[in-house]
Structures are given as C-alpha cells and as structure tokens.
Amino acid sequence: MHHVIIGAGPAGVVAAENLRKLDPTAKISIYGAEREVPYSRMAIPYFLIENVPEQGTHLRKNDRHYDLMNIEVHQQRVDKIDAAAKALSLEDGSTVNYDKLLIATGSHPVRPPIPGMELENVHSCWTLEDGRAIAEKAKPGNTVVLMGAGFIGCIILESLAIRGVDLTVVEAENRMVPRMMNEISGNLIKRWCEEKGVNVRTSTRVDGIEEGGDKALKLSFNDGSTMEADVVICATGVRPNIAFLEGSGINTDEGILVNPYLETSQADIFAAGDVCQGLDFSTGSYMVQAIQPTAADHGMLAANNMVDGREQRHRGCVNMNVLDTMGLISASFGLWEGSGGDRSALEDYDNYRYLELQFEDDVLVGANSLGLTQHVGVLRGLIQSRTRLGKWKEKLMQDPTRVMEAYLACAQAQA
Amino acid sequence: MAWTKKYLRVNLTEGTIKVEDLNMAWANEYLGQRGLATRYLIDEIDPKCDALSPENKMIMTTGPLTGTMASTGGRYSVVCKSPLTGAVACSNSGGLFGAELKSAGWDMIIFEGKSASPVYLSIQNEKAELLSAEALWGKSVWEADAILHKTHQDPQLKVAAVGRSAEQGCLYAAIVNDMHRAAGRSGVGTVMASKNLKAVVVRGTRGVGNIKDMPRFMDATNAGKAVLAENPVTGQGLPALGTQVLMNVINEVGAMPTRNMRETQFEGAHKIAGEAMLEPRKSDGKPNLTRNGGCFGCTIACGRISTIDRTHFSVQDKPEYWGNSGGLEYEAAWAMGSDCGVDDLDALTYANFLCNEDGMDPISFGATLAAAMEMFEDGDLTTEQTGGMELKFGSAEALCWAAEVVATGEGFGADLGLGSKRLCEKYGRPELSMTVKGQEFPAYDPRGMQGMGLTYATSNRGACHLRSYTVSSEVLGVPVKTDPLETDGKADLVKAFQDATAAVDSAGLCIFTTFAWSMEDIAPQVDAACEGEWSVEKMLEVGERVWQLERQFNQAAGIGGDQDTLPKRLLTEGAGSGPAQGKVAELDKMLPQYYELRGWNTDGSMTDATRQKWNLPA
Amino acid sequence: MQKSLTIDPEKCTGCLQCEMACSYQSDGLFNPSKSRIKVFNFHEEGRFVPYTCTQCDEAWCLHACPVDAITLDASTGAKIVNADTCVGCKVCTIACPFGTVNYNSDTGKVAKCDLCAGDPACAKACPTDAITYVDADATGYERMKEWAAKTDAGMTAGA
Ligand SMILES: Cc1cc2nc3c(=O)[nH]c(=O)nc-3n(C[C@H](O)[C@H](O)[C@H](O)COP(=O)(O)OP(=O)(O)OC[C@H]3O[C@@H](n4cnc5c(N)ncnc54)[C@H](O)[C@@H]3O)c2cc1C
Ligand code: SF4
Q1: Nearest CA owner, ligand 1 atom 30
Q2: What is the CATH number of the domain that holds C63?
Q3: Which of these, B76, B155, B529, C139, has the minimum number of CB atoms within 10 Å of its CB?
Q4: Complex ipTM
C-alpha cells in the first residue's frame, strides 16, 4: 500500500502521521513544492517579529521526526495527476505511483489586476520565502503599505507594526476583517489600530503602483490621492491551488469538490485543507474555509478514510478564527452574521470589549468577540454540540458574558 | 513582605485618585487591616468630627495574608468613625472582594471628602477611576451588582456596594460584597453612602506574591489547614451547621437573649437552629440549607447557602427570591428570631435575604425591632406610628414587613433605621435599648455568660461579640474551659481574647480560625509571609497596641469609661430561667481589674505611661 | 492505569484553594485569574463547579497547533504546552471545545492544565476532596468524554 500526499502543509503532515498510526506497514510519501522542511504558514508572522527563528515555524520540531515515523518527504512539485493510471508526474520529469492519494496543496495568494503588482518591492506574505524577503525590506522607519485588511492582512499588520515601520493599511471594504467580524467590531479594530499609530484607510482601493519618487514605489488610490512607499505587501486574498488538476478528471469549483468522506470525484483520491471545498458545519454546504484547524481536521479525517476498512463521515468544520491585532484579540465562530434567530450583544466601546451571540431557537450558532481570552473555546463547543440552552438562552440574552456558565450548566449538566 | 506596599487615596470631593506608599513603620507596629487602617484614621481625622460629614474618612483595607493560600486569607475591613456609636468602626468581611483588591495591587483604599453626585470606584489592576453612579442610586445591592456586572462585561468582577437603606440614612447600614458577605456592623455602609459612594468594583489579575519565605509559608499554611481540619468545631461543626451550630447550645446554657432580652431562653430555638435548616420541608422536600460555602481561601466554609420555601407567605408572589442566596448565620437567626420571639425559619431567611440585598446589619436590625416590639406591647408605640402593622413579639409578618421598610427607608422604616438607642429615646423608653455605646447586642446574654458582659461593656466599637469571643472558653472550652457564671479571671480572659482578636483582624484572617488556632499556629504563617519578625509575642503585642489605639481614638472622640457599661436590665433584672436563673451581669466585679490590666486609670481613661508604652499618637 | 482529575461539584465550597495552588505551582504566586482550573459559581443554584482540562483523547488543541507546541506526556496522558515553542497564535484556544486553553497576555503564550507531572497541586490543596486524582474511569470523567465525542468533527466516534 502506497499512500501519497501532495502538499507539505499542516493538512498533509497531519494526514501522513495519522496514516502511519492507522496503517503501520504502508509506504507513505509527501511531495511538497517548496524547498523547505514542512512548515506552518501561520507561524510566519512570529518569525517576522523575531519571536521564533526559522526553525520555530517548522510543523514538527524533531529533525528526524519523519524518519522516525517512516514518512518520506520529497521537495518536488507535482505537475499532473493521471487518475486512471494512479500515477503522478513530478517537476523533475519522473513519475510516482500511488494506491491512495491525498491532495493537500493549500492555496496561493491572488493579486488584484492593477498595474505594478509585478514590481520588485511588491510582495505577498504567504511563504517562508516571502517572509525572509519582507524581513529584509521592512526595516524600522521604512514606509510600508499593506493592501488588504482581511484576516491574513491583520495578522501581518501586527508583525509589521512591531517591526517599527511607518505603516498604512488600505482596505476596499468599509471596515477591517470584513469576512470575520461584523461592522461594529471591525470598526473597533480599526479605531484600535489608529490609536496605536497605524494609518488605516478603509473603503479605499489601490489603483496602480509605479516605480520612482523618493522611495522605491509610488501608489495611486481610487480617490485620486497618491503616496510613496518603500515596500507594498499584498494580502488581498487567496485561492486554492487547483490549476495543476486540469485534465485529471477531478471535479473542482472554487476548490476541490468532495463528498462527506473527503473523497473527490475520482476513486481513491481525497482532498484536505485549504484546497478542499469541504463541508461547513453551520450551513451544511461545501465551502473553502482556508483555516488552520480545518486543515488539521481534514488531514485527520482524510487519512482515516484512506485506510481500507475505515470509514468516517465528516460532520463539517465550524468556521472559526482568532486574531490578535496589536494586542486586541478578536474571534469569530460559525454563523457570526446570524441566520435570522435572536442575537444578544454587549458592547463596550471605551474598553474595546464586544461579544455578540447568534442563536437559532435556543441553540448557539455563531459568535463574534473582542477582548475575550478566557474560555473562548466553549463558543465552538456550544455551536458544534448543538447544545440546547433552555432557560440559559434567556440569561444569555440578558448577559452574553455568562456563556461559560451556560456551557457548564447545559453542555456539562453541571448546574 | 506580603503587603503590596501601595494604597489608593481617593478624594471624592475633588474626584482625584492618588497612589501612595504604605507607611512601613506603622505596618511594623500594626501589621495591617484593622490595626494599620486605624493608625491612618487617627492620624487623618478629628475623632470628634461628625461621622456623616465629609470630614470623616473611610478606609477599605486588607491584611498581609489577604489573597494568600493561608486558610481564610481573604478578609478585608472597613474602618471609619461610626455614625451609630461615635466610636471607631471596624467591620470585617469575607467573600472574594478583599483578595481581589489585593490581587489588583492594593493594600487599602482611603476615601475622603464627599462626591457632589453619586459615583462608584472602578479598579482594574493599576487603573482606578471614579465613574457615575447615577444609574445605581436608589437600587438595592443586588440590583447594583447585576448592573455593574453587565456594564463591565466581566463575570469575575467583584462588587462591594451599599443598598437603599444606607442611602436613606439607616444608621446600621452595611457594605455588602459578593452579594451576601458584609462589613456589617456600626454603620460603615451609612458612612459610605454619606460620601455619595455607591460601590467599589475591582478586578485584580496581578496576583499576590511578595511572600518573604515561600516554602516556609506553604509549610506553615498547610500545617494550619491540618489543624482546622482536625478540630471538631472548624472541621465538622461549622461546615455542617455554620455558626448556627450554636443556637441550641447557647439556649441550653441559658444565655439566649429573648424578646429584647427580657428572657434568656427561647422556646422556639430548635425551630430556627442549624439543625432545623437541614430538615426537609413539606412543600418540596428540600431543606432550607442547600450547601455550605467558603469565603476566599477558607478551608472551614461555614457560610450558609439557602432557599426560602416558595410557598411561604413572604415570597409566594416573588419568584426573584426563589433562588439560593446567603442563608442564616447564628447572629442573624438570633436577632431576628429569638430576640423578636419569631420562630419561623422561612421568615427569618427572607428577612436575612433582605438584609443582604439592601445592606442592613441583621443584628442591629433585629435588636432594634425587638426594642420596638417591646415598646409596642407596652403601648409606647401604636399602629399609628407603624402605619397599621401590629409589632407583636413572635409576629413573622411584622418581621418581614420591618425588613422591607428598613430596606427602603419608607414610613416607620426610617424610625427603625435609627437603631435601638435613638428609637427608644425618641419614644421615651431609653432603658429598653439593649446597647452599649449605641450599638446593639449580639446573641449572648451576659447574665448567663459573665465574660461576654465585660466584653460588651469594654468593646471599642460598642456591643460586639467579635471583639473578644469568650464564648469559646465559657461554653466550648477553647482554649480552656471557664465557668460562664463565674466572674473571677474574666478580666484576664477578656483582655487576652481582645488582644488576640485584634491581631487576627490585622492579619487578613478570619476570627473563626481561633476555634482551632492559637497564636502558635498563626504567628508562623504571618512570619513566613511578612518581612520583619512576627513571633507569638510580637503578634500579641500588636494586638494589644491595636486595642489601645482604638481606645485612644474613642477617648479623643469623647467616649470614656462612663460608657463602659451595660443596660440596666442586665445589671438589675435576674435571668428568668435556665442555669443562670436569678443571675445579673456582674460587671462591677470585673471592670476595675480589667482597667488595671490595661494600664488605665480607675475611671477608664488612658494614662500617659500606657500611651508612651504603646507609642500611641498623642 | 492512568489517573485523571475527578471533580465532584457536590463537595466544592468555592474556597478557591485549587486556583491559588495552580497559579502558585505554575507562576510562583497566588493568582486565581491565571489558574488553569477555574471554579464557577452558580449563585442561584447554590453550586460551585471546578472545571479544567480532561486531557481528552481527541486533543483538539494538540492537533490544531501549527508548530507542535502541545505534546502528549506519555506518563500522565496530559497534553502539555511547551512555552518555548508556543508562538501565541491562540488557535488552540478556539479549537478546544471545552474552553480550557487560555491565552495569557502577560506571557504572550497559552496555558492549560498539565497535571503537574502527575501530582496535581489543585487536588492536594482541595480541603473537601471535591478534586481528586484517581484512576481514569471514575465517575464524571466518562460523561465529559461522551460529550467530547459529541463535539468531535467526526474523527473518533464510531472509528
Ligand atoms: C501569514 C499567514 C498567517 C496565517 N494565520 C492563520 C491563523 O492565524 N489561523 C488560521 O486558522 N489560519 C491561518 N493561516 C492560514 C493557514 O496557514 C492555512 O489555512 C493552512 O496553512 C492550510 O494548510 P494546508 O495544509 O491546507 O495548506 P498549506 O499550508 O498552504 O500547504 C500546502 C502545501 O502544498 C504545497 N504545494 C502546493 N502546490 C503543490 C504542488 N503542485 N505539488 C506539491 N506541493 C504543492 C505547498 O508548497 C505547501 O507545502 C495563515 C496563513 C498565512 C500565510
Ligand atoms: S497558541 Fe501556542 S500552543 Fe496554542 S496553537 Fe498557537 S502555538 Fe500552539
């Protein structure tokens, strides 16, 4: 039995490890396109602020981890899949056969179609290689423009600010993290950043970038204004890495389409992580979540289903995020925008605290929080267990901060 | 160390908050909490000032062991001049508030002046600010607590507040923290409200460190906990029955003040005793007591958590009182129970809830009502004054009604809020007030327990059991058994208890530990925590110094030896039944000897030599 | 047989000795706000509920961690945060459906119960035996595990 995994990110590595656990004798190979030890993109921001050395971003810390688990790791891009022949073509021209295949190729950053995106000092912040380049160029005192205040943008923002650059953030939507936080909390994050000395321009777009001026780059905006910058960092979104699947017969939409077993339209081929359009717990529909916990969950489940005789149906992942924007911690869970049920919110603008709960009947289905660090996980727990809150629903309507008590009382039957 | 060595000075008139360094020379003399705050008070106010004027100050203060793992190390005290007695007030409370204040980094808070409009103090670690309390004024403690938790969006916020009774000028208003723990006596809540200060809220996440020798401290506190666990009172009696363990015991001794102290035994005692709180009731099969609860760090856990029978007349239409809350302690059960002749456990629990909800000292409230009942039965008071209520001994309805009107200050509630001394004077029967220095008696009749007579008469904050609990020795035999009806040796006993208690109250510990702990158990814990040397001798020295300092304050306030006395009834009317039958409180046999032991003149005034010996301020 | 913390809320008086012991064990001072075990007060019900990590088999925190900072202590079964490796991304705090991994802004890392290497300070400090450290299949723990399975995205139940 040969299990092959394309992609050396968290989805791929977690899958390989779980495969080894479930199938001690099989051959397991990982193919990753980057010339790196398997690492975690999520850790790049902490590498940027020199919180950890490069090695700190590695998914596993023991140098011999993969050897010890008898997992082969190859630094080779996969160019093509021949599902009929159960074979892969690699970038060096060779082919590899598989019995079971997992596609965990993640996603890649997309750039808006405007002039100047190819310039030398315009970067994405997606790979470790990008991280090294940014660390080189974003020096204290330099002017940096960050395009996109989405989730990834906001994470990088913190590390750039800590690096002491003169920072401007440009976001086309009317608030920060528009796809994670509602208007109130998104704007609170904006005000917070501004108070910390970051220049935040929402509802603004960069129209073009050109070389020249006192600094390396000159940007023009949709309102006609311009500014100069040393570096531009683009974080305007990511798309699943599915281009190489052309002709493989694997059905795709935004990402790879899978059934509730994470199996693709081709037999013995599975998908996991950012590249996979998997089941969303809250909506029951299939979507690309592109978050770390989902990548890990997918990796575990796909591995289980790749082993003969094992079958586990996916119940869906709760879409969730946690973000630290210069010390202000925000989180979102599930249907944070609500789905027509009751909502309970506490707003404390002065102290940057915010908590909003969304219900369907007496079940919690989504939440947004700012400034909450204790027991946040129970929001996920309550959503995912679909716990009926009974009389605690009313108490939470009065005061959502009592969510931990509600959880203990209802989910753990402790009161 | 154990002290944070920092405190807040809040000037309510100016609306300013300053951080100041703790006077460590004073800390070395007075340890903390009760003693140290009194040292500041005597330094900063004129003892003759009007207690309800902006000139009075109010100090919320912790001890060096507050917030530590020492068992019961969660106490705080409120020190000011009392509006009820004119003497020094020092009321001690448990719950979680004190430890939280310490964990925020503060040994104490000195409040001075008076705010122009209602405010509350909010402390989040280093950050302290005065915020508007307009929305809280006119609300009960419980309502204010809920609003404050909601405003601050923090379930872990600790709240200490005054209720409507304090706002209305009830002279025995308490400061209630954590819903049902109270700095209860002497009207400290009245002083707080007089400053337009509705509440103090605190969140402390810095932790308590600064322990001189941590390993030794852990050993000493563990040893202390083992002693508490093995002792029958602190290890079994108090957790199971709370202080209510005493109800039947004291009644049998014949020292249960009944119907405004006309009698010394109560026929209904068994119905309101700790044991009765465990009996399943008819309506729902549940007992009054749900469980026991502990204050911060307390391994005894004497606290009562109770419910009222939902079918009881007091709450049948009030579902908001159907949940659990702080249940009856012995003092409350006695004052509102036997002293008023009421044997209805649910009525007592309801009145107790109201005392917590609106911050009334249940001892003073019950004893004042008892005096009113006696006057009513004697015809000095009629339904005209009470607005129709028949204030008869034994009436549960009258008790519940009285708690409601004192809570809001409505109608006759304002009169009842005066306390028994002023009430009895107002209606022409001053001799019916069972008070010393204007403060009502607690639950031990001095005729049946002679040591308590001397205790009450000489207590620095007026009649009080928590200044020297000779009940320990006279009834429970701790540390040695003495005959309750005997006066010999009681002067020594009272002085020793007063000094030890003052030391415990200055450390951050609960006095109930002393059922099991002697100073030999306490000193090593203090010594391991605090810089300097804290031997048994030093602790007792601190205790006596604190006592002398309080006496000095009272003397300067114009309260001298002439007030070291008891109501005539106790000195002249013999006990009617029980072991003490025919006995009166023989104060005259003990007082002169006590003065001599204290190093005072025969009229009870302080001598220069004593003042110098204890290095007291002039 | 591996041991686990067993919690009996019926016995808890809410004294918080466990919280102090926990914070003392890990931070060297008495600081309930930093404790990995937390006692919840259900005031109206008259109930205190101590609550901490059950070291569940699913170990969502461990799997969610992007840098392998949470590892299994084979001798106790505890899932342990290695503070040197943790980058403070907080993903584990939202991944744990029990809410027992918490971020500490003072250290910039997360903290969770590590069973004190097999000698839990909370259990030792508890004066009423509401918290005990006993063989794993004792009461209470099983119920929490059942609930854990319910929360699972689909990896263990039926596997
Ligand atoms: C800066 C940054 C911060 C982030 N912060 C968070 C966060 O806080 N929380 C969160 O939940 N998520 C965060 N994310 C997103 C998170 O990193 C991804 O969701 C996660 O990495 C997805 O894992 P994956 O294994 O599916 O894909 P990836 O980690 O992207 O791994 C894909 C792997 O596939 C390889 N690959 C691609 N194409 C091929 C090919 N043709 N042949 C061979 N190999 C190929 C890649 O080289 C890579 O090794 C962050 C991402 C970034 C960039
Ligand atoms: S906060 Fe630390 S332990 Fe938790 S997931 Fe992130 S790196 Fe791992």
Answers
A1: A106
A2: 3.30.70.20
A3: C139
A4: 0.94
